[in-house]
Amino acid sequence: MSETKPESMTSQAYDKIRSEIILCRLKPNDKLIIADLCDTFKVSLGAVREALSRLTSEGLVISIPRKGFRVADLSQEELIDLTDTRIKIELMCIENSIANGDLKWESGIVSALFELSKTPIEDAVNSKYISPDWTSAHKRFHESLVAACDSKCLLTIRENLYSQSERYRQASVPLDVKERDIIGEHSKIADAALEHNVKKTQDELERHLHKTTSILIKAYAENGMF
C-alpha cells in the first residue's frame, strides 16, 4: 500500500478544514484543537499545522501565541471591508471575462442562470434558511460570469474573497429572502454580460453585492450578532 505524500496530506487537511469553516460547521471563535482535527480528518499533526498556517494567512483562522488556533470571528466591519474589496476584484474579473467571452462562455452563463432559477432557495427543513443546493447553484452562476477571465491571479483572489463572503451567508442567521427579487437581480447581471456591456454588468453586480451585504448586516443585527 502506497503512503500518502506529505504535501498531499497537507492539501487534504487544508481543503477539509477550510470547507468546514466556510460552511460554519466550525463556527466563528471555535477553538481548533490540532489532535482532534487529526482524528477527524485522518491526517498527520504536521499536515494540520501547515493547513492552519495557510488558513491563518487567508484570515479564516487566528493564531494566538501560547493559546493555539481559533476560527476567525465575524464582524460588521470585516463584512463591509470584504464586500468593498470583493467588488473591486469582481469588476476587474468581469471586464476581463467579457473581453474574452465567446459562445461557450455565453452558453455557460445561460445554463447556470437556468439552473439557479429552477433551484428552490429555501431550505427544505427550515424555510428561514437558504438551501445547500441553491448555494451551490449560486456559486456556479457567479463563476460562469468570470469563466473567460484569463488572469489566474485575479481568479485566485476572487475565489478567496467569495469563500470568505460565503461564510457570512452560511452562519446560522435567518435571512428574509422574500424582500428582494433574487432571480431578477441575477437575470439583469446575466443579460448585461451577454450583451458584452461591461459598465452595465459591473453596475448590476455591484448593486447586487451591496444589497446582499445590507441584508446580512440587518439579519446579524436583529439576531444580536453584530
From TrEMBL:
| Every HTH gntR-type domain range | 7-74
Gene Ontology molecular function, alphabetical? DNA binding; DNA-binding transcription factor activity
Name by which UniProt lists this protein: Transcriptional regulator
Listed Gene3D superfamilies: GntR ligand-binding domain-like (1.20.120.530), Winged helix-like DNA-binding domain superfamily/Winged helix DNA-binding domain (1.10.10.10)
Enumerate the CDD domains for this protein: WHTH_GntR
Q: Tell me the domain of life.
A: Bacteria
Q: Which InterPro entries match?
A: GntR_C, TF_FadR/GntR_C, Tscrpt_reg_HTH_GntR, WH-like_DNA-bd_sf, WH_DNA-bd_sf
What keywords is this UniProt entry annotated with? DNA-binding, Transcription, Transcription regulation
The family database entries (SUPFAM superfamilies) matched by this protein are listed as: GntR ligand-binding domain-like, Winged helix' DNA-binding domain
Native species: OCS116 cluster bacterium
